[in-house]
Amino acid sequence: MFLRLIQTRSDKATILIRFLVGCVFVSEGIQKFLFPETLGAGRFHDIGLPAADVLSNLVGMFEICCGLLVLVGLLTRLACVPLIVIILVAIFTTKTDVYLAKGFWEVLHASRTDWSMLLGSLFLLIKGAGYYSFDFSIWLNKKSWA
Questions:
Q1: Which spans in 35-75 are helix H?
Q2: Among residues 130, 125, 45, 54, which one has the least CA distance to residue 87?
Q3: Structurally, how many domains does the chain consist of?
Q4: Domain for residue 8, yes or no?
Q5: Which residues constitute the domain of residue 133?
Q6: 63, 72, 105, 111 - which has most CB atoms within 10 Å?
Q7: Is residue 3 part of a domain?
């Protein structure tokens, strides 16, 4: 089971997607703590999420921890699952009002980073971390032991 979780292809360019997804999620997680009124608990409260303080801190920690795992390529597939959930909730909770008020094209414009993070995370969930990753190193070593 563990081998299937870390199994990845030897694609070297995957590091670019990992860098994009990891950096954005780590940055957003940190900003939830640095700017709680505008990007953390205050924002969560404004969009009507329950237990905004607790939820904001939890989401921020997941974004930082999972983002770091994606950056180094360790347990990448597992780390992408909560990131996908986080970004889907973000899209639905923040872009519905934009759609209703300003329409389809404004939602596309306002959600370009969200879609990039969603698609990048889905890519990593499907393909794995790639060549330059801890997953690949562990998988290669475990595979040679079998």
A1: 36-39, 41-46, 52-72
A2: 125
A3: 1
A4: no
A5: 13-141
A6: 63
A7: no
**Structural domain includes residue 130:** yes
User: What is the band of 144 on the pLDDT scale with cuts at 50, 70, 90?
Assistant: low
Phi, psi of 141 (to 5 degrees): -65, -45
Average pLDDT score over residue span 71-83: 97
Residue 143: pLDDT band with limits 50, 70, 90: low
The Cα 14–Cα 11 span in angstroms is 6
Measured distance CA(76)–CA(83) in Å, rounded: 11
pTM to 2 decimal places: 0.90
Which amino acid is present at 140? Answer: L
| Cβ pair 87, 115 in contact under 8 A | no
Give the whole-angstrom CA distance, residue 116 versus residue 110: 12
